[in-house]
Amino acid sequence: MVRRFVRPVAATDIMPSTTSAVGRRFKLRERDPILTMSEAIEQVPGFLFIDHVAVSVTPGELEAQVALYRALGFEELHREDVLGTDQVREVLLQMGSGPNRIQLLEPLTPTSPVARQIERNGGRGGLAHLAFRVSNIHKAFAYMNHQGFQIIDPAPRNGSRGTIVFFVHPKGAAAGLGYLLEVVQEGSHA
Question: Fewer CB within 10 Å of terminal CB in the chain, N or C?
Fold first, then answer.
């Protein structure tokens, strides 16, 4: 099934028509006003969908958490130790055949950003971040930077499972989102 969206009218779509006593009238240029979903997404460097919800897990509790999600019907898709600045053990779980994913993050070191978040949360795990999937990470990075979001990474970087990612600070841009945001492009590292 192809989804179609009505394309918003842009200033370049309007041309002067005739002049009336009240003023100018305008008419639309001859153009197809319908776009497919992929065409609409390409026009705005926006998000495709929520890639995953990341949950921090206290050290030593990862396997117990994985077992609980499996009991709820989730299937393990990926497991990886992510080193570098992240220093976490990641388990990615999926419910059903859709894009509904939970990412469990266990800190590998006390200096891991996830370990610091757990410490600030009174020693409890919880929401680590929300991740949005994009079709073009570089366009999304430039757009969000231009819009004033406080981007943590100086440029998109390699993430887990072959993705390209960058993180957005929870307190950047106006009032801020209130949570850490990860922007993800699927596929092999570029």
Answer: N
